[in-house]
Amino acid sequence: xxxxxxxxxxxxxxxxxxxxxxxxxxxxxxxxxxxxxxxxxxxxxxxxxxxxxxx
Length: 55
Fold this sequence. Notes:
- By secondary structure, the chain is mainly α.
- The protein has one domain.
- Helix content is 78%, strand content 0%.
- It contains two helices and no strands.
- It has helices spanning 3-24, 30-50.
- Helix 1 (3-24) packs antiparallel against helix 2 (30-50).
- The two termini are 15 Å apart.
């Protein structure tokens, strides 16, 4: 695993944690949820570009 792939994986996990926490809040901001979801998908795409075997 390269350093970049490792950093992206960590970033994906942090975004996922933040997204879950935001979804659990009663007063969840829909714009924040959308932003976090898009960020997570962008990072996931980068991970798959670097390492297409991960599926």
